[in-house]
Amino acid sequence: MKILAVSTSVHRYATSGIRTGMWLGEFTHFYDVLTEAGHEVDLASVAGGVVPIDPVSLKTPVIQMGGTNKRYEDPEFMSLLDDTPAIANVDLDAYDGIFLNGGHGTMYDFDSADLSRAVAHFADAGKVVSAVCHGPCGLLGVTLADGTSLLSGLKVTGYSWAEEKLAMRADEVPFSLEDKLKAEAGEYSTATVPMTKHVVVDGTLVTGQNPMSASGVGEAVVEQLER
After folding, report:
1. Contact predicate 132/100, CB 8 Å
2. Pfam families given for it (predicted)?
């Protein structure tokens, strides 16, 4: 089966101009879990083209923060980020689910109308909708075909405000993802200890709290696909 992964196209914080983008380890860990299980993963982005990488994700230890392992040094793998299609141009019917990759850039462009339509397309079809860390920004404000909110009554997780503070990004981000998820979802939860694995599954919706949850999201998605 095939999963469509989607990345941010934003490479700087609007407030300071500090570089941001995709958190690479979240993509590599999710990708590895899915492909090792025999599934395919294609990467798209909001605007198309080269995917920006948050430089911090290249410096963070693998074990502590869901880092990039050896994938960054693999030219063939990294070529997947070189020329991605824009989400508006993707044939959504060719995929069995969607994965919204994290990274702070998502806080600026995952409110894209094209991305919202894509997420609704998968949800309305009863297909897997998954997201990790800041990826759930793409779940906010999504309206389904019946006029209801995607997150209404559902259990969800995503990057917490405590984690924004620990990452020293509380003064950079445009909003609190935790607060917005609490406002839209039926229930928002986090791990007892920040920066530790936490995955929530509610029907065909799979969300992970932080980079350490990317593999867990992948495993939960595999379970959904193989039912």
Report:
1. yes
2. DJ-1_PfpI
**Helix, strand counts (H, E) of the chain:** 9, 8
Rama region for 200: left / alpha / beta (φ>0; ψ in -120 to 50; rest): beta
Give the confidence band of 73 by pLDDT, cuts at 50, 70, 90. Answer: confident
In 11-35, which positions are buried (b, 16+ CB within 10 angstroms) versus exposed (e)? bebeeeeeebbbbbbbbbbbbbbbe
Terminal CA-CA length for the chain: 12
Which single residue is written with the structure tokens 């897997």?
Answer: 128
Domains of the chain: 2-225 (3.40.50.880)
pLDDT tens track for 46-61: 999 999 999 999 887 6
CA 141 to each of CA 110, 135, 138, 160, 185: distance values in angstroms, whole numbers, following the listed order: 10, 13, 8, 19, 11
Q: In Å, how far are 19, 21, 77, 172, 191 from 112, measured between CA atoms?
A: 20, 16, 27, 20, 29
